[in-house]
Amino acid sequence: MDLFHVLGSGARFDKKRFNDDISLFEPQKQKKPVKNVVNDQETQASLLQEIDFFHNSKSAIIETLGKKQLPNERSTGNNEDDTDDSDENEGENEIVDQDESTELNSLNTQDNVKKFRKRYRIRVYGTDIPNPFHSFSDLHNKYEFQPYLCKNLDSAGYKQPTPIQMQAIPIILHGRDVMAMAPTGSGKTLAYILPILHDLNSHKKIGYRALIISPTRELAKQIYIEFKKMCVGKKFKICLLTKATAATQAQDPHLKQKFDILISTPLRLVHAISQDNIDLKNVQHLVLDEADKLLELGFLDQTDEIFAACSNVKLQKYLFSATLPSGVESLANNFMKDPIRIVVGLKNAATETIKQQLIYVGEENGKLTAIRQMIQEGRLKPPVLIFVQSIERAKELFHELIYDGINVDVIHAERTKAQRDSIVLNFRQGKIWVLIATELMARGIDFKGVNLVINYDFPQSIQSYIHRIGRTGRAGKSGEAITYYTKDDAPYLKSIVNVMKDSGCEVPNWMLELKNPSKESKQQLRKKPIKRKTIDTRSNYDKKKIKRKRYEF
Ligand code: ADP
Ligand code: MG
């Protein structure tokens, strides 16, 4: 029953009730292989002739057959992608002698600080950069953090700070603006929660002093919960802005003075500002979580309005994301004051604990065949998150998979807020095994136990890829990500190959030799997804038959 072991704590199953469903996940005797699915090197090589749009099939075949798997070589071609960061990464893999670690922890010389940063793969850019700290006890000893914070860290089981926390916390505490880029699941939330709570000191009745913006409701709620966890024993008042909380604040002007911290999505907040229900003039800490998303065209106007409403001269701004493309960085430089840029790990790379795979499925319907084969072979170990490119396709895939006898659900913007909340909760508790999602779920959401992310539809940008697969492999755990690609996606394959290579995955040589897509074609894909055939593999008759069979029991 290793299916249940992988779910971790919180997952409770009624095994008797779900016996039929469970049996579908158990490994079965070898089934006939599905033609479309390619996951071994030789088949991939033989496919190359068919998918000749790579332009280099001949040499690739020879390479693939000659050298089995390839180490994580750097690309020789010109890398146009946002991941190109070769200068900055120099000396990246140098290992600091473990014997030096005690000495380094004292961080008393600039040389030690440099070695310490190298050891934790922290790179910093800017002027007068404060030193990182080494252990949570330093926060108490050096920065005089109140005991409640140390206690709450302990209760949460956070023993050591993560690299982004080591470096971002002192910078924020020194009153500086920050642009922080660190891998998915590496503890960015706590990196801003701790210094903010320390600085706020205690509850005051002067209105909001910290504001956190998140692109989705789901992430805003998660941040709210994390704040609450760290506030135990202290009387801070935190507001998660919803239609209801905004309405009550409109009715009672005194409520506006009551809260210390506000967490909101941009749209909800802009609406409240325009209705004069929210006063942001005392805000001193402004966080854009998933900053690159919030600075994309769709959100930019709203983010701009929020900035305008935060009029306090002491305002500090913090941008956090796993991906901050250079365009976003230069845009951010316009509104930040002498910011310090932190990059943990490789720029725009995926988390290293995630095993990444690209699987060629030929035509659209090869994807469903591939998933069904995984179910039959017991390889689909829940919880699994499946990403598709549109609400329409999410619904279509859901209608296919419910007939496969797995506990599947679907989340997208057209579901009600109550439904979305309950789906997230049920998925966290292991009641939903397979969750089909649109880009809505791609960022920030911390599902600790997710074993596998399937990109059913090829992501439209490398940022989308990094965030989607970052729903697994969180907080140092291992995870797996599978990306299906069809002939139509093949021209964009190299972008993902670059991310895989940079995050230490083994990639076959022929993939490394693919051409990078042009800037124009990448921009085009970002704007508009590839047109795909409807997801529908069963005839209506089949569906009825299977449905009837399931309900007979
Ligand atoms: P990110 O925002 O970088 O994607 P999160 O802030 O959501 O990551 O954190 C990912 C997970 O790591 C969360 O479950 C969080 O509770 C956990 N976490 C954060 N900091 C620590 C720490 N210092 N030690 C252990 N776990 C941590
Ligand atoms: Mg986050």
UniProtKB/TrEMBL annotation:
Please indicate if the UniProt record lists Oxidoreductase as a keyword.
no
Q: Which residues form a coiled coil?
A: none
Q: Which Pfam families match?
A: DEAD, Helicase_C
User: Where in the sequence does UniProt note compositional bias of the Basic residues kind?
Assistant: 544-553
Q: Locate the compositionally biased regions of type Basic and acidic residues.
A: 533-543
Entries under SUPFAM superfamilies matching the protein: P-loop containing nucleoside triphosphate hydrolases
Q: What ranges does the record give for the region Disordered, renumbered to this chain?
A: 64-100, 518-553
Q: What is its EC number?
A: 3.6.4.13
What are the entry keywords? ATP-binding, Helicase, Hydrolase, Nucleotide-binding, Nucleus, RNA-binding
Annotated ranges, domain Helicase ATP-binding: 169-342
The Helicase C-terminal domain extends over: 353-515
GO cellular component terms listed in the entry, alphabetical order: cytosol; nucleolus
Q: What is its main location?
A: nucleus
Q: Where is this motif: Q motif?
A: 138-166
Where the record annotates domain DEAD-box RNA helicase Q, the positions are 138-166
Q: Which reaction does it catalyse?
A: ATP + H2O = ADP + phosphate + H(+)
Q: Which residue stretches does the UniProt record annotate as biased composition, category Acidic residues?
A: 79-100
List localization entries: Nucleus, Nucleolus
Q: Which GO terms describe its biological process?
A: maturation of SSU-rRNA
Q: Which GO terms describe its molecular function?
A: ATP binding; hydrolase activity; RNA binding; RNA helicase activity
Cite the PANTHER family for this sequence.
ATP-DEPENDENT RNA HELICASE RHLE-RELATED (PTHR47959), RNA HELICASE (PTHR47959:SF15)
Give the protein family.
Answer: Belongs to the DEAD box helicase family. DDX52/ROK1 subfamily.
Protein name as it appears in the record: RNA helicase
Q: Which organism does this record belong to?
A: Gigaspora rosea
